[in-house]
Amino acid sequence: MSFLRIKKGGLLSTIQDLGRPGYRKYGVNPGGVMDRRSARIANDLAGNEETAALLEMHFPAAEIEFVDDRIFALGGAELGASLDGAAIANWRCHLARPGSILRFEGKVLGERVYLAVNGGFRADEWLGSRSTNLAGGIGGCGGRSLQSGDVLDLLEPTLPTSAVQQHEIASNVLIPHYSRFPTLRVIEGPEHSWLNAAGKTALEEQAFTVSHASDRMGFRLEGDPIGIEQLIQMVSSAVTYGTVQLLPDGQLVILMADHQTAGGYPRIAQIIDHDLPVAAQLGGGSKLCFHFVSISEAEALRQKIESDLLLFRIGCKLRRYGQ
Amino acid sequence: MLDLPIRYFPLGDAALTVEFGNSISRVMNQQAISLSQAIERAGFPWLIESAPAYASTTVFYDPAIVKLQFPKAETAFEAVRSLISGIVQSLGESDLPPDTDRIEIPVDFGPDAALDLQLIAETAGLGTLDAIDVFTSCEYRVYMLGFLPGFAYMGEVDERIATPRRSSPRTSVPKGSVGIAGRQTGIYPLRSPGGWQIIGRTNVELFTPFGTELTLLRPGSLVRFVAK
Prior knowledge:
Chain A is of the alpha+beta class. Chain A has four helices and 20 strands.
């Protein structure tokens, strides 16, 4: 059985996949990767199913040693990846040799990079998912982030090393358009009507700054306070990835992948699925604006990107059968 | 109170919430639980999961499958709303299941475990033993699970000891801590940051990740705390 050797653990490197839906009613959050689209593309490129476990890393990222010939792909943030000292690009696959070292030299754009290795990680599975649940200390690599000296078991490779010659590259249509100052499209949240006129204007017309107190659970935003018409107490109700809540001090928080399953703060907006990958790559100090769209626009954007992803996935598979 | 119109709204582009109201009510909570169970029984191909809260149920769906099944629907949301509102209307009084399991939870109210008992008692103008008596003298209903795996929101705490959350949450609350937040009570299944006032601690396991039942408590369970 093969493995990867973790020479340095990095700041917050965790094994993730597309999460464990189905258990919210027990208070278990679905979790999983922050930037789902990048993770799916990376797995497609590496010749895996999109549900395969991969590594999500922040900067400083892990330093990783390969022990066998292994095709891998990177997606998500641009963190200056290098293989044996030579710079390598995201959004395509590469071949590591026994002893190859993968490093990340510096943050260029985005916060989270995904490493998918062909075959995938043999990590701890819980409730149908290998993603790391940090709160519960379960899944992935012992329910925790990687530490220097960890050894991560890999499943058998499914591609011959020659498959790397195929040069699959994800197109710009698929790749999320990362930015340090994006406009995120939202639909109105259930309590949006509680805002007063000035509050609605403040929500739509100002630029918010992502606080440094932001993590996989949520991003706090800093901006002019947003006012509500009258203070209504709310009983806890469902929240999900991308829910924008209004805190009592008038500031906002965006719930991210490790969000709680329910919350008691007004849900004034919800980031649409299509734009969550862009949100997921924001870090402390980034700015953002909100732009309201209708549910039908949100659904149409989702449908379009899903059909593009499907074509890409089929394309990846066909090229491999064609060898 | 029950005559409030039932609201249906999108929670993003892949979830729909049915809201029966906005208060802690046994009847509305039972409606939410019954609806969630009925949705799961219906076997919709697009259903990802359904989760009840205090007075609402949220349905998570795959819009691509909804659109395949209902290509003429204006939006996947509208198609799901139409199906779910049909189920809501068919939920009669007879569908309200009786409150199910009754569970006793032994609690250590000693000074090492009951981190905020002194403050809870002082706020109530009671002695600590009287505060414990007030707390243990009634039965609590589990309204929902959330916050942490297996964390049950229970109510309603007697008004005399209904202490507000700490203004500054603790960075680490020990596993098994029994907390009060206003008229709610709950037990931390895991060590976690938290702002509830801690009245005691139990060594009962509330969350068994690899057990046949993930959680000891479920919505609708009735709980009594006993001093040990």
